[in-house]
Design a protein that fits this description.
Structural class: mainly alpha
CATH topology of the largest domain: Four Helix Bundle (Hemerythrin (Met), subunit A)
CATH superfamily of the largest domain: GntR ligand-binding domain-like
Mean pLDDT: 89
CATH architecture of the largest domain: Up-down Bundle
Radius of gyration: 19 Å
Length: about 220
């Protein structure tokens, strides 16, 4: 019984990642109706893990469910993006300062090592112009590590939901000109200021990074 439950949960997570990546990459289009049975058939599984994954994506505001009709990718407006990034500045801005203030602790030193790894992974993805999704994952991990350091579950869960909502727009923004290279430079600048222990300077660097992100997303196709 326990084994069956674990297998089902694992399958649900796999379906969740499959659907989420399809939404972010634009394989699932806004305005088109899809059915849970269609995905179950494609993946050769039962509808139960598909339903569970769909409900999680609905909770993260990425999908809308229409009774007796199906599911649809939820439209994303620029005003939504702007508000989400403003919320991120409030939470992550605090988190950046918290990490920087505690930069001399052993726990913070471990985070610095992991942040440096994220920067290296992002740099590798820049060399391949088709690895936007990989770059975004490194970006998510970079920001996530900073928030995780606070050990505040409310911050961590809220940031996960907020970022999930705009990941598709994030991938779109990375395709704008030299945005990936610029984003890495912004991360590297933030990283160096965090290491210096200048908590207010780190906050200003992060805020600038987010404002630049808003400006880039103004020109993205959010569908």
């Amino acid at each position: 019984m326990v084994e069956n439950i674990l297998q089902r949960v694992s399958l649900k997570d796999q379906v969740y990642q499959y659907l989420k990546k399809a939404i972010i990459n634009g394989d699932l289009k806004t305005g088109e109706i899809y059915s849970e049975q269609m995905f179950a058939t494609q993946l050769n599984i039962s509808r139960t893990p598909v339903r569970e994954a769909v409900l999680q994506l609905q909770h993260e505001n990425m999908l809308e469910i229409y009774n007796n009709r199906g599911i649809m990718v939820k439209p994303l407006l620029f005003e939504d993006v702007k508000k989400i990034i403003e919320a991120r500045v409030a939470i992550e801005g605090y988190s950046v300062r918290y990490l920087t203030k505690n930069i001399h602790t052993p726990e913070a030193k471990e985070v610095l090592i992991l942040l440096d790894t994220c920067l290296k992974l992002a740099s590798e993805a820049v060399d391949d112009k088709q690895r936007y999704y990989d770059f975004m994952q490194a970006d998510i991990d970079f920001h996530g590590l900073i928030v995780d350091f606070t050990k505040n579950d409310y911050f961590i869960n809220m940031i996960h939901m907020l970022r999930s909502r705009i990941e598709k727009a994030t991938v779109g923004s990375l395709k704008q000109g030299e945005r990936m290279k610029i984003a890495i430079k912004e991360h590297e600048e933030l990283f160096e200021i965090i290491k210096s222990g200048d908590d207010y300077g780190a906050y200003l660097s992060f805020e600038k990074h987010m404002q630049n992100t808003i400006e880039v997303m103004k020109h993205c196709n959010l569908d």
